[in-house]
Input
Amino acid sequence: MARHLVIPSMLQLYDCNEINLISPELLINWGPDNRNDATINVCGNSNIKFAPTLWGRDFDVPQLSALPNSPAPFGVFLENEPNWFGAYSPDHGVGCNLTAQQCASRYYTETNIINQKFGVGVVKLFTPSPVNPTYPKCSAPGQYGCTYQDQIAWFRDYFAACPNCLHDAWAINHHEYSCNLATTQANIQRLWNNFGTKNIFVGELGCDGPSPEVQAQYLRDFTAWAYTQQYVVGFIWAGLNYVGSQGAQLVKNGQLTAVGQAFKQIQQQYPPKLTA
Output
């Protein structure tokens, strides 16, 4: 089971001293400008990998075609293999903002480019990761809300529109607003029960709670549970995702928060297997 501690879009919110203090293993940036930039340098830290990601309707296919003829640009989620992420929050208005059908079309086009460039199976492909049905922002009006209120419904429409798409793992997002591990487990198991032919990667895990200490314990408990599940192949802790009044910050005033300390503890307790 691969565990990777990731800071999405961290360059917008942390300075280099804080980034190096956290020392994440992988950088994901949702923005379309540099997500396929294989040469991105994160504060001079060569240990941080970069993960290309399908973005939204403004994606420029030549960006992907222009990648060097090596799978090296791709971040590693699963052990020792380069990976490509389908899309973050495709059903969310302020996320990728794609219908299931639009996302299927983009995914098919982009994964064909990847497979033609590097060979089928060289870069492992993750499905798009819709947000969980209890995500409060999904109820926002208009373009800020979510087209779907249910991950399973989104996936059914997506798979119907993408019958010839290749996938190596299912991906979902889960934002837990009560830091309730049982609710998280049930949502992940629900996806497995409906689409159990592939393993599951939790593309964005966030927790809000009454205190940073509660959030930190949730992160520890989730990691311990995930490592016992053969079908959970990895997860991302969305350390900068502001999920509520406490948020899930890892650093404050130059010091690790309780969540940041848990983050570092897990780095040491569950070291990932990464390629160079």
